[in-house]
Amino acid sequence: MYVLQQRLGHNLRRYREAQGLSQEKFADQLGWHRTYVGGIERGTRNLSLQALEDLAGKLGVDPLVLLRPSSD
Questions:
Q1: Per-residue confidence band for 1, with pLDDT thresholds at 50, 70 and 90
Q2: The Cα angle at residue 47 between residues 41 and 52, in degrees rounded to 5
Q3: 43 Ramachandran zone, left/alpha/beta (phi>0; psi -120 to 50)
Q4: How confident is the model at residue 23 (pLDDT cuts 50, 70, 90)?
Q5: How far apart are alpha carbons 11 and 64 in whole angstroms?
Q6: Percent of the chain scored above 90 by pLDDT?
Q7: With 90 as the cut, is the pLDDT of residue 31 above it?
Q8: CATH class of the domain at 3-67
Q9: How far, in Å, CA of 67 to CA of 9, rounded?
Q10: By CB neighbour count within 10 A (0-12 exposed, 13-18 middle, 19+ buried), where does 71 fall?
Q11: Residue ranges of the domains in the chain?
């Protein structure tokens, strides 16, 4: 597995949960399937830069924040 994909997935889950969103609700907001969002969070999906920007925009964070190592 790739480090950035894992890091993105971990950070995505943290931010999504902090906003009280289920995978399903978040996926609906993006117009994506829940299993696709689950794959991103597990680090098994490879995203385009556009998709990364979409995720970050829905969470209200800078896309680079999702790629940084987390402190937990």
A1: low
A2: 85
A3: left
A4: very high
A5: 11
A6: 93
A7: yes
A8: mainly alpha
A9: 9
A10: exposed
A11: 3-67
Stated pTM of the model: 0.90
Q: Which regions of the chain does DSSP assign to beta strands (E)?
A: none
CB contact set of 71 (below 8 Å; sequence gap of 6+)? none
Q: Token pair 């940084």 is at which residue?
A: 68
d(CA 51, CA 72): 25
Structure-block tokens of residue 50 = 């556009």
Backbone angles phi, psi at 44, to 5 degrees: -105, -5
Q: What is the mean pLDDT of the chain?
A: 93
Six token digits for residue 55: 């995720």
* Whether the predicted pLDDT of 15 surpasses 70: yes
